[in-house]
Amino acid sequence: MAYIATVNGDEHTVEVKEVGEGLFEVTIDGERSLNLDVRRKGCCSFSVIRDGESFEVDLDSKGDGKYEVLIRDEHFDIEVIDEMRKKMMEILGEGAGAASGEITTAMPGKVVKVFVKEGDAVEAGEPVVVLEAMKMENEFKAPDKGVVKEVKVSEGDVVESGAILVIIDTESE
Amino acid sequence: MALFKKILIANRSEIAVRIIRACREMGIGAVAVYSDIDRDSLHVRLAQEAYHIGPSPASESYLNIEKIIEVAKKAGCQAIHPGYGFLAENSQFAKRCEEEGIVFIGPPREAIEAMGSKTVARQTAMKAGAPLIPGTLEPLSDEEIVAKAKEIGFPVMLKAVSGGGGKGMRLVHSEDEIESAVRMARSEAGSAFSDDSLYLEKYIENPRHVEMQILVDRQGNGVYLGERECSIQRRHQKVIEETPAMMLTPELRKKMGETALKVAAAAGYYSAGTVEFLMDANNNFYFLEVNTRLQVEHPVTEMVTGIDIVKEMIRIAAGEPLSISQEDVQPKGAAIECRIYAEDPYNNFMPSPGTITGLRLPGGPGVRVDLGVFEGAQVPLEYDPIIAKLIVWGKDRPEAVERARRALDEFMVKGVKTTLPFHRKVMENPIFLSGEFDTTFIDTIFKKLDEGRENRYQDLAIAVAAIAEESSEGTRVEKGAPSTGECNMWKLYTRRLQMMRG
User: Which of B384, B460, B472 sits opposite A71 (nearest CB)?
Assistant: First the structure.
């Protein structure tokens, strides 16, 4: 099948052909071809042999065609979409991204301090929330000047990664 | 005095396991304690006895002095080893042990108290004749901090009087940074040490962090076991330690070792301990602080000296005189430790708690792994994110580095993100290999070099990701429709698109 892989903002076409059990012929950008023997046994990683060279490829699927790949000391975030789906999505157009002014956390943790309440005016860079995880405190700051629209957490709350902490109405809106 | 029959280990994870190992090898019963979430932890399984001490937050379990004392008495323990962190440097805990007739395996509480206050430690070191970093000898108010910082001259280090482990510490470059730095440092210090007082030191440019391991018995005999170079730090926290320090001459080592023993004597210290120094670019060393506990990085010293520091600590606590003299300490070869944290090195080292779903340990000659987890174990959010330490020995530094490199390649952890790939990159870094680095290395030069690196395996990564996507597509198509064909594929796309668009 044909896919579009996006790495570091660059798109590459990828053609995958299964030629035997665990044997793949992969062509990237129509010019670079890789013959791979791929096995997944046990807990930890793929074993990949390419022209006699043996690799362990540590791959995590994050869903929706998003992969995190680690080979030796190199790390890649790769999004793989099959070509036809990509085309259809382009025709239909994708929804807008997250609203600006949402302050979210990329890690789970415990809210130890909330500096603002609804209706407060904040300056860019002003601290709004302090989150503690594994004993380190991390300060979250207002990205832009604006007014606090909603405070989603209170002190003592335990939040998951991706949680919205505070929503700020920025001037531009 | 006979050795103890039973020791309670007031800690968790890899360090609890390390102490349990020493106990087992000495024929001493090891008693573990655990919080709610740690019922399934490794130390509970490896100890001969284990007792629940409370809910998951450390303040209600591993920091609960009275509960731990109660368990120690009930279980018939003659001594308690605190490990590092938690109650290890809590003089109140040492005092309560004393009052209950339980031996605290560590220094006398007066020495913990004196060295626990970084300002008192500075005063003690000064009396012992150790060179000091310019700064204050007393805690300061917010106003005094601003005034003193201007007097000392920026950049300055803002430090917690009761600090340790890089917490409650901020480097301040200029006056406009100081207000926020003081607020963060006080808050962090307050929650970590229940004491938010701060003091100031002049910031030494491009410092190296070198520390001296000592052993002192209750009779006052002391030996130094050599230095550890701990300059590879991230956010003021050590991540890689090694011995010997490349730039330390035998004369300098002797001088540093003897200074360390003098500071210990001035503080009335016994047990294992570490005297930390900063070295400037001209190899001048300055007293930094005394860690009145077993250090995370103690294994590198054990690897080159063959001396089991935990066992020595236990013997000293039991009142035995040191069995070794300074001449018996003959370090051999080189050792390196990599701290494996459950943190995501590709996402600003964010903590990555979760379940360990896969684990493969390195092995072979010269490799030691001090491990706190197993496959299926939880890495909880509540505690320090260290899950393992990899320690390697080599006949010299190049061999130790090669060994670290291959052991890191063997080491695999799945389910949580770890600092393993970060260590792999450091072991390839030319500046690390040259030994010409200081404590700013990771946050500056390494970061820059790392960002400019060429990726050799990008095509391979893309290919494997596409193969993985193809196998998952295959499964979905099969599940979604009994027969394959272009028609079904199109149906699937439409359905997926509908799902995506909600």
Answer: B460
